[in-house]
Design goal:
Largest sheet: 5 strands, antiparallel
Shape: rod-shaped
Oligomer: single chain
Number of strands: 17
Strand order of the largest sheet: 2-1-5-4-3
Structural class: alpha+beta
Number of domains: 3
Number of helices: 13
Strand content: 25-35%
Order of helices and strands: HEEHHHEEEHEEHHHEEEHHEHEEHEEHEE
CATH superfamily of the largest domain: Histidine kinase-like ATPase, C-terminal domain
CATH topology of the largest domain: Heat Shock Protein 90
Helix content: 40-55%
């Protein structure tokens, strides 16, 4: 009696529920914990067959397991759905063993059962998640592979197989490094080790892969380390995109650009040569003149052409035919004019200040002609023979605006002189160029002469 009492205390306080059924499957005993799982009190179920509470889809499978338990004396474990008192089905996992009378005849079964609905819900969510992952994985337009820590392919999607040309069976016997171009293996190995030790979260690169048919292809590859909740490495996720056509197109564009650069360079060189030729012809022409005014006119025109020729010369020497360093150009033009007019630099000093001097070629050409006229004007008219002085050249660009000034501390201009009507000094040419670039010029006659030109850079 004491043992029976202890046993009842145990069964009535178990979270799992236990019970007895006879050979017809009729409940003969149920522990009180059944109420928690199924909503019924034990007395509501005792005397009723277990099969009336089962989900129709589980009925035959459960009957078969029950018959095996009774007839073969086997322990049976089964998961099925039991109808809750309030209508829903609850997943129950049951383990049953047969019980026998004194003659050894099976008289029923004893079972232990537990509610596994929560576990089943988790399984269902995991299954749906897995199915969703498999669908996304298989249908992804990006080649995707799951790679083990020893670099073997565990799973690959159809796009990965299409890119590499290998079947799933082929890839199962290969390591990811086997597909890499030999020249890319060493650099890739170091990055992979960084992924494993955690110093790198993701490795992205453009690599060459070798297809099964031997063709070398370019791919964008992204390699990520997948870790467990404790941060331990599980496997790599490799994602690749075939960029071979893009790479070939880039090479064709580079080749085309190189050809165009060579052609443009040749054009600049020929323009420069032609301007130099015309300049030489003018030089020959004014060497035959006795009229000083005609000589000066030819020399001025020669220097104007030289100013433009120098732009083309700088462009030809540049890596970018669209822009020019105008600070470098100012120095070259200044030195040319000093030589052309035979300036004694011990008497006339030149100062140059240039800021943000990279400008486009469409701006550089009118700017060069304006600068040539302003420097020439100061050289020719600012100082008396043998007189010392200083010519300052300033250039500044920013936010699309150009400010160019030439200042001398010479004798200055006559107050009543209209500088823009001085045809013989070249200032009329400046006026025409300013109209072309929508610029303005200011003249300051204090302590010499300062010409300041302001306009907007081409493209703004």
């Amino acid at each position: 009696m004491e043992n029976e009492k202890q046993l009842r205390i145990i069964t009535e306080n178990m979270q799992d529920h236990v019970g007895l059924v006879d050979t017809q499957g009729i409940f003969r005993y149920l522990s009180p914990s059944v109420t928690v799982a199924l909503g019924y009190g034990p007395q509501e179920l005792i005397g009723k067959p277990i099969f009336t509470f089962l989900h129709p889809d589980d009925l035959e499978r459960t009957k078969s397991a029950f018959q095996r338990c009774i007839t073969t004396s086997s322990t049976e474990k089964i998961q099925n759905r039991f109808k809750h008192k309030y209508g829903d089905y609850v997943w129950i996992e049951t383990i049953g063993n047969p019980i026998f009378d004194d003659s050894g005849q099976a008289v029923g079964a004893v079972f232990g059962a537990r509610d596994i609905t929560h576990s089943k819900d988790i399984e269902k969510k995991l299954r749906i998640s897995e199915e969703h992952f498999r669908s996304v994985f298989d249908q992804s337009p990006i080649g995707t592979a799951v790679v083990s820590l020893d670099y073997r392919f565990k799973r690959v999607n159809p796009e990965f197989r299409r890119i590499t040309g290998y079947s799933e069976k082929d890839l199962a016997s290969l390591k990811i490094f086997d597909l890499l171009h030999p020249e890319d293996v060493a650099a890739n190995s170091e990055k992979v080790q960084n992924l494993v030790n955690g110093s790198l979260n993701q490795h992205k690169a453009q690599k060459r892969y070798i297809r099964k048919d031997g063709e070398i292809i370019w791919v964008n590859i992204s390699l990520t380390m997948i870790r467990d909740p404790q941060g331990e490495p599980l496997h790599f996720l490799a994602m690749m995109e075939d960029i071979t056509q893009t790479k070939h197109a880039e090479e064709e564009i580079k080749s085309s650009l190189k050809e165009k650069e060579l052609l443009l360079g040749e054009i600049h060189q020929r323009v420069d040569n032609n301007l130099q030729l015309v300049s030489k012809l003018l030089e020959l022409q004014f060497s035959n003149f006795e009229d000083e005014k005609k000589v000066e006119l030819c020399k001025s025109n020669k220097n104007r052409m030289q100013a433009v020729a120098l732009i083309h010369e700088k462009l030809y020497q540049s890596e970018d035919f669209a822009i020019i360093d105008f600070a470098d150009y100012i120095e070259t033009l200044k030195n040319h004019l000093i030589s052309s007019y035979g300036i004694d630099t011990d008497l006339i000093k030149f100062k140059v200040r240039a800021e943000n001097s990279i400008i486009d070629v469409d701006t550089a050409i009118p700017c060069s002609l304006i600068l040539n006229e302003l420097i020439t004007n100061s050289i020719k008219h600012a100082f008396n023979p043998g007189e010392s002085g200083e010519i300052s050249i300033s250039f500044k660009s920013g936010n699309g605006n150009i400010i160019l000034s030439v200042t001398d501390n010479g004798k200055g201009l006559m107050e009543e002189l209209d500088v823009l009507s001085m045809e013989k000094t070249g200032l009329r040419l400046i006026s025409m160029l300013l109209e072309q670039v929508n610029g303005v010029m200011e003249v300051n006659k204090t302590n010499g002469t300062k010409f300041e030109v302001m306009f907007t850079e081409s493209g703004y």
